[in-house]
Automatic annotation (TrEMBL):
Domain Cytochrome c per the UniProt entry, residue ranges: 36-112
Entry protein name: Cytochrome c553
Species this protein is from: Thalassococcus halodurans
InterPro entries according to UniProt: Cyt_c-like_dom, Cyt_c-like_dom_sf
Keyword Metal-binding attributed: yes
Signal peptide: 1-21
GO MF term set: electron transfer activity; heme binding; metal ion binding
Key words of the record: Heme, Iron, Metal-binding, Signal
């Protein structure tokens, strides 16, 4: 199921529906094709973990540790493209290139609990 491109994706809509809320863009496909370096992702992750600790029941800042890889990448690309509204995340994501996003996704995927 694919919904209109005008739909602003949100993590909750992606996870609740179990489908993508908008078609995957060429930009997102390019990032999915990159084999991210988890060691580089670990190096970059300190800025993420400053806020996204996952040690609270307050999901105003959601945990990212167990986020599916695809959802993690889509979220960062959406913030970078300003499809998601959050000035802090837009600023952070705007500084990340495709390699950095892939590395962060690889690192956080490797950290997932089973």
């Amino acid at each position: 199921m694919i919904v209109s491109m005008n739909f602003k994706r949100s993590l909750s809509s992606i996870m609740a529906m179990g489908v993508l809320a908008a078609p995957i863009s060429a930009e997102e496909n390019a990032i999915f094709a990159i084999e991210g370096d988890p060691d580089y992702g670990e190096y970059l992750s300190s800025e993420c973990l400053t806020c996204h600790t996952g040690e609270t029941d307050n999901y105003a800042i959601p945990p990212i540790k167990d986020l599916p890889t695809e959802a993690f990448i889509l979220a960062l690309v959406d913030y970078r493209s300003k499809l998601r509204e959050n000035p802090a995340m837009q600023m952070i994501a705007s500084r990340l290139g495709d390699q950095e996003i892939a590395a962060l996704a690889a690192y956080f995927t490797a950290q997932q609990t089973e």
